[in-house]
Design brief:
The chain is mostly helical. The chain has two domains: 150 residues, no CATH class; 158 residues, no CATH class. Helices cover 79% and strands 0% of the residues. Helix 2 packs antiparallel against helix 3, helix 2 crosses helix 7 and helix 6 runs antiparallel to helix 7.
Length: 338
C-alpha cells in the first residue's frame, strides 16, 4: 500500500483528479486495516478507525471537486460505519485506564473490580459486534466509493476553454480556511469545564493535520503535524477521562436510587430491614470504589487539560497558524506556478 503524498507533479494536476488519487489511497488503507479485524491484533480496531477518519476528512474537505460522482449515500455510509466503532473504542480505552489503576483503598477495591469486569464484558461484546457490522457493510461501501472515485465529470463551457482548478490552488485555499477554523477553536478551548469547546478544538486540529499529511515531504509540515498531534493527544486524553468519569457518576446515581428504593421498601415492610441493611453495606463498598475511580479519572482529565494548555499557549498557537498559512502560500512556488 502506497503512502498518499501530494508531490509537485500531483499538485499541478487538476484538483478533481488529484483529490481522487489521494482519496483512493486512503480508501485502500481502510481495506488493509479492516482485513485485520477479528484477529488477535489489538491495534486493528484503532487502525480501522484512524483510516476511516482520514478518508472521511479528505472527502469532506475536497467535497467541491468530488461531489460530481461521490454521492451523499456514500458519505452517510462511511459516517455510519465510523460511528459503529465508537462504543468498542470507548470500552477499550476505559478498560486500559481502569486496569492501570493501582494502590486503591481497601473499601474501593471491590467497586473497581466490578467495574473492570463489567467493562471487560462490554469490550468483548462491542468488539464482536463491530467486527460483524464492518464485515457485513464495509466491503460494499468501499466498492461503491471506489467506482465513484474512478472518474469525474468535466464541465466544458460552450463559449470558452475548459477551466479546471489545479490541486495546489484548491489545497492552499483549504489549508487557509482550516487554519482559521482551528485557530478559532483552540482559542475558545481555554477552560476544562467547557468540554464542548475542547472537543471542537481537538476535531479542528485533527482535520487540519489530515489535510497537511500528504504534504509531509516538506520538513515544515512534518514539524507542524507533530505539534498538532500533541494538541490532539492531550485533548483526547482529557475527553476520554471526562467520558469515563461521567459514566461512573451515572453508576453512582443508580446505586443511590436503588438504595433509596430499598429504604422505602423497608419502611413499608419492616421484615425486610435485615436483608436491606446487608445489601446496603455491599452497595456502600461498591459506591466507594466507583467514587474513588471517578476522582482519579477527573484528576487525570485536569492533568491532560493542563498539559494541553502548557504545550499550546497563545504564542504556540500563533506560530503554528503562521506556519500553516506559510505552507499554503508556498504551494504555488512548489509547482513552479506563475
Amino acid at each position: 500500500m502506497s503512502t498518499p503524498r501530494l508531490t509537485p507533479e500531483l499538485l499541478a494536476e487538476p484538483a478533481q483528479r488529484a483529490a481522487r488519487e489521494i482519496a483512493r489511497v486512503r480508501l485502500e488503507a481502510v481495506g488493509a486495516a479492516q482485513i485485520r479485524l477479528g484477529s488477535e491484533d489489538p491495534q486493528a480496531l484503532h487502525d480501522v478507525r484512524v483510516a476511516l477518519r482520514r478518508l472521511r476528512s479528505w472527502l469532506k474537505a475536497y467535497r467541491p471537486v468530488l461531489d460530481d460522482t461521490v454521492t451523499r449515500k456514500s458519505r452517510r455510509a462511511f459516517a455510519k460505519l465510523a460511528r459503529a466503532t465508537n462504543g468498542a473504542r470507548d470500552a477499550e480505552v476505559a478498560l486500559a485506564w481502569l486496569e492501570a489503576q493501582r494502590e486503591l483503598p481497601l473499601d474501593a477495591a471491590r467497586g473497581h473490580r466490578e467495574l473492570v469486569d463489567r467493562m471487560t464484558a462490554e469490550r468483548m461484546q462491542t468488539a464482536h459486534a463491530v467486527d460483524e457490522y464492518l464485515a457485513a457493510r464495509l466491503p460494499r461501501a468501499m466498492r461503491r466509493l471506489e467506482r465513484q472515485l474512478g472518474s469525474y465529470w468535466l464541465r466544458v463551457p460552450v463559449d470558452g476553454a475548459p477551466s479546471e482548478p489545479p490541486m495546489y490552488e484548491l489545497t492552499a485555499r483549504l489549508l487557509r480556511s482550516h487554519t482559521k477554523r482551528a485557530a478559532r477553536a483552540v482559542k475558545r478551548a481555554r477552560a476544562a469545564h467547557d468540554v464542548g469547546a475542547a472537543h471542537r478544538a481537538r476535531i479542528a486540529a485533527k482535520q487540519l493535520r489530515y489535510l497537511l499529511e500528504p504534504l509531509d515531504a516538506d520538513p515544515r509540515v512534518a514539524d507542524l503535524i507533530g505539534r498538532l498531534t500533541v494538541l490532539q493527544d492531550r485533548l483526547g486524553e482529557f475527553h476520554d477521562a471526562q467520558l469515563l468519569a461521567e459514566r461512573i457518576l451515572h453508576d453512582v446515581e443508580d446505586i443511590a436510587s436503588s438504595n433509596a428504593r430499598r429504604r422505602a421498601m423497608a419502611a413499608v415492610e419492616p421484615d425486610l430491614v435485615p436483608s436491606v441493611e446487608a445489601r446496603g453495606g455491599s452497595r456502600r463498598g461498591q459506591r466507594a470504589g466507583l467514587l474513588e475511580v471517578a476522582r482519579r479519572a477527573h484528576r487525570d482529565a485536569n492533568r491532560a487539560f493542563a498539559a494541553y494548555r502548557k504545550a499550546w499557549p497563545k504564542r504556540a498557537l500563533d506560530v503554528a497558524m503562521h506556519d500553516a498559512t506559510s505552507i499554503a502560500d508556498g504551494l504555488a512556488d512548489a509547482v513552479g506556478a506563475d
